[in-house]
Amino acid sequence: MSDHEYGGNDDLSLPKATVQKIVSEILPPSTGVSFSKEARDLLIECCVEFITLVSSEANEISEKEAKKTIACDHITKALDTLGFGDYVPAVLEAAAQHKETQRVREKRGNKFEDSGMTMDQLFELQQKEFEEAKKKQSGEA
Predict the structure, then answer these.
(1) pLDDT at 129
(2) How confident is the model at residue 2 (pLDDT cuts 50, 70, 90)?
């Protein structure tokens, strides 16, 4: 099935550098195996096709459940339906890791809010820092 069947766009792609980095991590230089640009581009096309296929199936599942938002559960059901059920545990683990990462980021808080200073005070401090930097740059300090 091509993305044209889903009303797709020929411009859809993944960042080449990101895909190359993933492949490089899997195939370290010590193996002596290289990955051609043509192989990378084909892999990108396959990934886009896979994403299109899974998201389309997940959309159908969510519509059958009268949901307006595709949830993780819809993705795992789509993987099962499409014959990729073996990947579901790894997908669920990746989703859990992502949730934990997001939770930790949110817990860190905002350093400006945690400073206890008003926006005016922060602005004034910033201006002083700029002035000091200018003096250092011009050799006055």
Answers:
(1) 92
(2) very low
